[in-house]
Amino acid sequence: MKIYLDHNATTPIHPDVLAAMLPYLRQAFGNPSSIHRFGREARQAVDEAREKVARLIGAKPSEIIFTSGGTEANNLAIRGAALVREGKGGHIITSAIEHHAVLVPCQYLERKGFEVSFLPVDHNGLLDPDDVRRAITDKTVLISIMHANHEVGTIEPLEEICKLTMERDIPFHTDAVQSVGKVPIDVGALEVNLLSLSAHKLYGPKGVGALYIRKGTKILPQVYGGHQELNFRGGTENVAGIVGLGKAAEIALHNIDVEGKRLCRLRDGLWKRILERIGPVKLNGHPTRRLPNTLNVAFDLVEGESLVINLDLRGIAVSTGSACTSGSLEPSHVLLAMGLSPTIARGSVRFSLGMENIQEEIEYTANTLEKVVRRLRSTSPLNKNGRVTSSYREGIGREA
Hints:
This protein has 13 helices and twelve strands. The chain is of the alpha/beta class.
């Protein structure tokens, strides 16, 4: 049996998405910038995809800029919005639990002379809007706070934070790569200026994403060389990938409510079984304010990577956190920022469900987890004569 529970890392391409892409990898190969019929055919496909992506997040088609993925979208938003306002100040506000696709551009700007405030979060991964209010200065030129965390699924209070930015006329960017397609998003209601998304997180192809840029928001392009994408991003468009993103957005919009409820039931069922059969454990992230597909659990007396490897040997794919940092030996910066000790952080595993997962797979996963965790705990050097372990004293319990 093969069970994939790592959808926050990437998703399989939906069959309908692949079918929509294939013509633009074969006969419809034109360059969207060409004025002959081959080019016009490609241009029409790109425009239709732009409309579908805009519809998913409540934007106008002219506010959608296609990129090579979420990382480029974040870089375009952060570097582009900060650098165009460099003369008005040099202060950026973000959070300590952002994806590295946000943290690293902010660190780059810090080396260039910008001041960056990396705000803390609470034990559930929630940012306090009052901390944002206190951090704002007359030199603040950009605020970038993720919509939902990629490791624990906590959904941030963007509505409250955006009100602060609107009052001060400060551009606001959100990395919504993990939330677009999983929960309803309306950029008009959120009042964000910039929003990043990625196709491969919502059953589209890798290598394509988009940045929403609210009309009137000024940013500097980061890729030069052509007039494409309303002069925000030079280079011939990835037509097949863009078509795939458009189709994925269309499917997500149609399924988002029903699929969200279904994934919640599966996720909560898995958590219930873990609580009943495997203890002590701890839920990482907010117990209710989180993505419907995401469950991050700390297992006492178990090293997370060992659990991932042992589950993989039994046909179950999960992760210890962000795929972009899977090669690191350091504990998750997200979990550490939430106040977890390095021991608890290293014993944490993320289960992220998707549309192909079914109840039988959840049952198999729970049964397998119980056996694997029991075996790993029995051989753990921390498990000595049944004594309470250090990590348990540090706060792991059976309750969320």
